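User
Take a look at the entry that follows and flag anything odd:
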Amino acid sequence: MIQNANSSGQGFDPDHSDNPFHDTLTEAGFRYSHSTPIVYSEGRINHHTYKRGSRSISAWKRRSGWSWSGSARPGSGRRHLGKTGADLARYLKNARD
């Protein structure tokens, strides 16, 4: 449940650290920023966003399992998607801020 939501519904979700990518992201220097509720056909799902410099990575869980997406800069149009911790580790290894 998102707490202290702004007008867009973004805010702090105390469950953000329950996602399987949390430890990998924090060990790579990312910090939790906020969670955003997104509406899908199966209901409302919180995307948990982490940031390091201009790079951001979001993690979320749908019926099919956990996924993540990363971008180098806001509005850059370049986005990477993955479903596993191995995908994320590979992405982080090659990521340059």
Q: What stands out?
A: The chain is about 15% helix and 40% strand.
